Amino acid sequence: MPLLIDEKPMGSAPKTVEEFVKKYPNFRESSIMLCSQESRLVGPDGLLYIGQREMAATSPSDDKIKILGTDDATTCHIVILRHTGSCATAVAHLDGCGTDKAVARMIDIVKDLTGGKQWGRLELHLAGGFKDERGLSEDLSIKILGAFNSASEEIHLSTACITDLNNTTRKNIQWPMIYGLAINVKTGEIFRASFADRGPDMSLRSARHFTGEEEVLSIYDYKKQRMTIGPFLYSTMDEIDLLCRLPDQFIRQHLSTSPEQEPPHFEAGVRAALVQIRDHPDPMKSIFTDGKPRMYTKQPDGSWARA
């Protein structure tokens, strides 16, 4: 079933975001409203943070997780899929790798959480990207729209604050307006957000996509209400000792798809991932020694404890 917009099938996927906006101008108004929000700093209580090339899903019956969110998206896109009846919600942070499989997996997870026949519908919310010089954002926007448009389920596109619609100009430089979003699983409220706490094992999780592992991983077991990290392999990198000692300016200029637009903490995150790769070149031997994931449960104070 093609992606539905205003209750009508989208038909063939657009070739450009400009074409998409011209055909569906209502998304311009809703994007302006979303971009005009003040960003909220979300605390760790009830939060599940999703990193780049990750996804997670849960429902209101989960007494551990109330908020799903992600940030640091420049050319990346934030994808939220929610069933209006069950309120089952999935969030993904996509960067162009593993897009089709990630979309299929999100749909399957939300359907599993919803169970059987139930009133309501699947609604899709997209945000992210900007008018970058290399056109990476636009390519990803079109790829995601195409992937959902190819799904067999009816999915209603409700928000599309993507690329052209998420773009602003500062001193003749293009910038994304929205870097992060969060959703309240129970109410469905979507809001601009940033996060002081990103959960456990972030350097380990980041090392995976820095070395080219393309799969978008689901990091939450919604049946056991546990975060699950791994097990997975990642590739080591040539001259890793040298890379760990690189100055911040080099890291920003050469290890980002959009150096000027990255947040201030970008270099620290990359450096932590590089150190992770250097110190643990084979995570199956030094981290996932029993071949099982590292599991964590959410504590009342918002922290994560090893299960």
CATH fold field value: 60s Ribosomal Protein L30, Chain: A
What is the percentage of strand-forming residues? 25-35%
Question: Domains counted in the coordinates: how many?
Answer: 1
C-alpha-based Rg, rounded = 19 Å
Describe the structure.
- This protein is an alpha+beta fold.
- It has a single domain, classed as 60s Ribosomal Protein L30, Chain: A (2-Layer Sandwich), CATH 3.30.1330.200.
- 28% of the residues lie in helices and 26% in strands.
- The chain contains nine helices and 19 strands.
- Strands 10-9-7-8-5-15 form a six-stranded mixed β-sheet, with helices on both faces.
- Helix 4 links the parallel strand 9 and strand 10.
- Helix 3 crosses helix 4, helix 5 packs across helix 8 and helix 7 packs across helix 8.
- The longest helix is centred in the middle third of the chain and has 16 residues.
- The N and C termini lie far apart (41 Å).
- The mean pLDDT is 95.
- InterPro entries: NTAN1 (IPR026750).
- It holds the Pfam family N_Asn_amidohyd.
- This is Protein N-terminal asparagine amidohydrolase.
Give a short summary of the structure.
28% of the residues lie in helices and 26% in strands. It has nine helices and 19 strands.
Main features:
single chain, 307 residues, alpha+beta, 60s Ribosomal Protein L30, Chain: A, six-stranded mixed beta sheet, five-stranded mixed beta sheet, globular
